[in-house]
Every structure is written in C-alpha cells, then in structure tokens.
Amino acid sequence: VPRKHRFIHTSGHPHINDTFAKKISSVARDLELCNDNRLKLRVSVNKIHKVCNMGNSACENEGQDPECGVSERTNRTCDEVPVGQESVSRSHLEGSACELKIATKSAAGAQAQLPPDPEPGRTEVKSLDRPMAFEDALTKTTFGKFNCFLIFVCGMNLAAVLLETLGISFVNPVAQCDLELTNSDKGVLSAIAFVGMIISSHLWGFLADTMGRRAVIMPSLFATFITTVLSSLTNNFWVFAILRFLTGFFISGSSATVYAYLGEFHNIKTRSRAIMAASTIFGLGGMLMPAVAWLVMNNTWAFDIPFLGITYKPWRLFLVVCGLPDIFCALSLFMLPESPKFVLSQGRQTDTIKILQGIYGINTGQERETLKISSIIEEYESLASRKHNEQNMKGSFRVLKSMYNQTAPLFMGEHLRKTMIACTLQFGIFVSSNGMYMFFPDILNRVATHMEKSGGNYSATICDAVINTKVDIKEILNSSDSSSCDLKLDISAFEHSLVLEVLYAVGFVIIGITINAVGKLAILVFVLMGCGLCAIATLFTTIPLLSIYLYVILLMCGLAVTVVNAATVDLFPTHLRAMSVCISLMMGRLGSVFGSNLVAAMLEINCEATFLISGISLILCGVLSFFIPNVQVRPHGRVREERLSISSYGRQ
C-alpha cells in the first residue's frame, strides 16, 4: 500500500497491528452475513477505496502475519474496482453497502482503542475524508439567511392554501344571489375544493416522492391561480363548483409537499421549529383573509361585463386577490433548489453536495467550496426504494405500479399503525377546524342580525340565533325589490374573523417556541381537549360575546394540524415522507368535506348536534395523541436519523 494512503504511522506502537488484526478479522466474519444479499446497490468508488485503505493501512505486515488481512476476496475486490466506475454490481463487491458500513465503523472503533503515544510527536495522523451522514452534512450548512427565506416562502405557500380553500366562506353569504345558493349549495361549495384535494393527494404524493418536491409545488401553484381567476368570471353554480374543484385539485400539490420540502432542509433539532415558524407566517398570512375581505367585499360597487354575461362585484375581485400568493410562491421557488435529501435519495451525490454547499455559502457568506464534503451516506430505505422503482419503471402500467409500491409500505408492518393514527387525527381535527369554519362568517352575521332585531335585549345561544335568522334565497330572488340582493356581511363577522387569525398566529408562535421544550404530545393534548370542551360549552352560553369567543377557541384546534404534520415527517423515512403527509392530509380533507356538509345539513335542523359532534371528536383525538410512536421524544443533544447499517438491513 503506498505510504500516502497510510493514515497512521505505526513505528511508535509495535502492538497496533494486533489490535487492527482482531478488528479486521471481525469485519471479515461480519461480511459473510452480507453475501446472500441479492440487492444491487449503486456505491461510490471513492467510498470503496477509502474502506480498503482503512483496512490495509494498519496491515503493513500482511505477508508475515496471516491474521492481519481481511481476506483475499475482499482485498482483490477493492483493488479490482475500475477507476471511474460509478455502478458496482454484486459480482464486483458482494454486499457492498454492508461492507462499507461495517468496515467504516470497525476501523474507526479500532483507531479509537489505540493507546496514547508514549512519546508525543511520534504518531502522525492525517485527515481522512470519510462518508458523512446527511444529518451531519446538513448541520454543517448552519442556519441562516437561506433558511429564513425558505421558511417565509413555505409559510406563504401555506397561507395560499388557506386563502384558496377557506376564502369561499366569506364569498358564500355575499354571492348567494348571483349564484342562487341554497344552504346545501353553500355546503357543496365549502367542500368541493377539499374533494379536489382528496382525489389528487395520492397523485401529488407519488409525484413528489419520485419527481421531486420543488418540481411538484411550482406547476401546481401556477395552475391553481389560473383556475381561481376563471372561477371569478362565472355566473353558473355548477361551472363555479367545477372550477373550485380544480382549484383544490391543483393546490393539493403544494399543501402537503411543502412540509416535506421544508423539513428536509433542516436537521432533526431545527426541523419542528422551522415547520412551526412557517406555520406562524401562515397564520400571519391568514390575517389577510378577513382584512382583505373587509376592504374588498364590504363595498357596493359593480359593473357589467356583457360578453361574459356577468356583473363584476367585490366578491369576484376577492377571489382573485386570494390567488395572488400562488404566483408569489411559484416565482420565489425559482430562487430555491430542490430538496437535498430528495436529490440524495435519487443517488445524485454530486448534486446533493452542490446544494448543501450553496446553502452554506448563503448562510455564512463564505465561498461555497469551503464546505468540504466528499460523500454522503444514504438511508438504506432510500437505496432499496430506488432499486425497486427502477425495476418497476421497466414494465407495463409502470406509473400505477410505482404508485402502489410508493403507498403500500405505509399500510404494512411497522408503518401501518403510524399511518392509521396520523390519518385519524387529521380527519377528526379537520372536521372541526375547517368544517365549522366554513360557516363561521355566516353564523356571526346571523348572530349580529339577531342582536339587531332583538333591540339589544339579547339572551340566547348561538344556535337560537341561527334558527331565528333563516334565509330563504327563493324569496329574495322573487322579491320585487332588487336591493334585497345587495347582501353584505356585518362588520362583526370581519372583526371576529380577524381576532381568530391573530390568535392563530400567536398560537403558532407559542408552539414554535415551546415545541422542543414541552414536546408534541403535551401541545396536542392541550389544544385538542381544550378546544373540544369549548365546543360543548358553546351550547350552554347565552352571553353573545362569550359564546362567540368560545366558538373562536373551538376553531383554534387547527393549530394541531401542523404539530401532527411535524410528527408525521419525523415518523417516516425520506422516500415515504411526502406520501405519508399527503395521505394523512387527504384524510383530513375528507374530514373537511364531512364537516362542511354536516354543518350545512344540520345547522338549521339540529344546530346543537353540530357543536356536540365537533367537541366529542376533538376530545377523542386528544386521547389518541398518546398513541403516536415516539411523540414524547425531544431533540436534546445530537440526534441522528437511522442510516445504512447491518441492523437496518436485517430488519427488511
């Protein structure tokens, strides 16, 4: 072995060879466990030669000491690897992934056991570029300007999702004359975007895990804006409903994928906090909804567009304004790279290192090349998934088959329980947070109307006010007084909606600050059970302002959605994260559809049951939170994700 490859000068330690001989012999025995493996892995030649050098460097007397060498097969294999060859099959290196991990760990362990140099200065140790774990490489990029900009863009992305899906709650009461909406029609429009999100969640999750996070988010945002603008230019209920369905279909591509995209730029110590910070911006962006609705919709201007056959009113402009964050986020993503963890999972080591170096350069202001990373260790799950996907792409029905292979692991083995818990939690939370919110401005408007009619002598529950202020759209349309169609929301509807969004933002800030200290479990139990109890208390409160704010606290259960998403990201390996979040949020959107139509059907028939169902479901979700695996684990100290190892290999 050339002396330049020997990383320890052994002249001062005559017994070093025996120490290494025992370690290397143990390595040889362990390597035999990998020989039955039939999985072909793409392995960097640099890694292989470094492992060989580590094993051979201590074996200077290999010819005299038969115990020193690993084995003739192993040494020949390392020496015979052609330089520059990127793909090494089993015939070149059997169980290469296993050998790489064992040899690296064993050689490092042997080095750690060396006795101190009896004469300082006699031992010469040269730096060795070893494969680096992704978490360690990501930590070296530090946290700085790049991360702040990324968090802001992802937060605005989440705000765009909120505006596109929940903005219709302000449109329904005002557009009921133009679109001739009954209470059931309002339920359909409230839920139709979520139906689109449900249908497309699986597709977007598959595309995000196979094509890339950024490659999915950008086109979905552009398409969402187009459908939003078109929906503002129609007078037909069914055309409007179809366009809102398409809006939900496309916005789903960014709503769940953005969590995986953001999380994979941060290590385990900063990931939850980054997601919570983005959620805070999402909450601040949510404040724009009632504020913009107040400024735009609380007006009476209108003008005709003859060739479209519509009268352009403030509610149509409001829809367009709700779509503006889509364009902002899509354009901002041109300045951001693909997720480095996704790029690594595709076997693109060089591109991954370039992305990490770029982040390092932006965060530190130094030259990107000053971050030295020779190679990065891939997760075993990513290697196996890529191998499986490459095989599936060669056959017929490859897309459907690959989608199945991307989804099936979530409902098998150790992942089944985690998937079911995440899906159930999201369903229960969305029933209340979105289902009840879609009628929030309408209910507040009815409470204000009832208070005005009662002349200030108001002593009734929210449900009493709803029943006493029913609106018959047919009577309004048949009225000879055209001014009866100029419906406006009471100012209190905007004010209390703004208060709700402010409380959301404050809640996200508090969660972001405390999540690492108190853990996800404590936050979930406090939020879900507290909101559930407030929902039940709303039924018995006859003080107007108190009942409204109990309703507001009920809707704050949506704070738990991002905590569940953060837990989901931590529970699954890289190649399943986007799909797992998409599937769980798909069930959440199903809860939104169920909740919206439940409220539409029961609000004027059995209003009390609506609040009771909401409260009970939230309390049950709080109990279910105790069963989330590892939910109480908090990232104290240096925590690493599972990487390629013999133990992870054997579990498969």
From TrEMBL:
The chain crosses the membrane at residues 148-168, 188-208, 215-233, 239-262, 274-297, 317-336, 420-440, 497-515, 522-542, 548-569, 581-603, 609-628. It is a multi-pass membrane protein. GO terms for cellular component: membrane. GO terms for molecular function: transmembrane transporter activity. Residues 150-633 form the Major facilitator superfamily (MFS) profile domain. This is Putative synaptic vesicle transporter svop. Belongs to the major facilitator superfamily. Gene3D superfamilies: MFS general substrate transporter like domains (1.20.1250.20). It is found in: Membrane. The keyword Cytoplasm does not apply. Keywords: Membrane, Transmembrane, Transmembrane helix, Transport. SUPFAM superfamilies: MFS general substrate transporter (SSF103473).
